[in-house]
Design goal:
The chain is mainly alpha-helical. The protein folds into two domains: 71 residues, no CATH class; 134 residues, Homeodomain-like (Arc Repressor Mutant, subunit A, Orthogonal Bundle), CATH 1.10.10. 55% of the residues lie in helices and 5% in strands. A three-stranded parallel beta sheet has the order 1-2-3, with helices on one face.
């Protein structure tokens, strides 16, 4: 959870034969951005007690072994768990600008905001969209969107602010989760996009207002270069 991007954590609360409620509550307190799904091995009185106890802490998604864990059903359940609320909100704001994009490009832009760590460069983004970098930027410009470089940076910053809400995430951890080669590069890009260093951003950012500002920057031509 510290160094890898996770969409959801599937947790057995009795993995060593005893309830691990304190450990799960501590995990939830340190990494609230990662939704937890309970994976119950059996429907016993002790398991029901654990489920009810953790439900009071906001963990309400439960999978029962032998009933909900058929592969297709399991994938559907895990994909239905809300994740990355800030990135999702940002995507909803700007996605009307690329509703008429070619299917491959539209899917790539959506993936950018759901998994920004998957794209290490603008070249990766253009390749995934089946376009040259020049054609990608040209398409974005005609649709009043920021450059591909700025979209990539915006997706990373949105996710960084999401991770910054986790007390258990150090800034160095966040840079690794986003795929940066060094914390220094991460800090430089955060400052280029926001005007402040990551430590200041973590203390002062109001996530919802910041997402509105970031959306406004992405829905116009131009952008911040490295």
């Amino acid at each position: 959870m510290r160094t890898r991007p996770l969409d959801v954590a599937l947790v057995d609360p009795h993995i060593d034969g005893r309830p691990q409620l304190d450990e799960i509550r501590a995990l939830l307190a340190r990494y609230p951005s990662v939704p937890i799904v309970l994976y119950m091995m059996a429907l016993t009185p002790e398991a029901l007690h654990s489920t009810l106890t953790l439900a009071r802490h906001g963990i309400t998604n439960v999978i029962l072994r032998g009933f909900d864990d058929e592969p297709k059903r399991l994938i559907q359940l895990l994909e239905s768990v809300p994740a990355h609320g800030l990135s999702d909100a940002l995507l909803r704001t700007i996605s009307p600008r690329f509703d008429d994009a070619p299917p491959l490009l539209r899917g790539t832009l959506k993936q950018l905001f759901s998994s920004p760590h998957a794209f290490r460069s603008v070249g990766d983004l253009a390749h995934a969209a089946g376009m040259t970098r020049r054609n990608l930027d040209r398409w974005l410009e005609t649709h009043d969107l920021a450059s591909a470089r700025m979209l990539l940076l915006g997706a990373r910053i949105a996710r960084a602010i999401y991770y910054m809400q986790d007390p258990g995430c150090l800034l160095d951890d966040i840079s690794k989760k986003l795929g940066y080669e060094s914390p220094r590069l991460f800090a430089r890009q955060v400052r280029a996009a926001t005007g402040v260093m990551p430590s200041v951003l973590r203390e002062t950012a109001e996530p919802e207002k910041f997402m509105e500002m970031l959306a406004a920057r992405l829905c116009r031509r131009g952008g911040v270069e490295e």
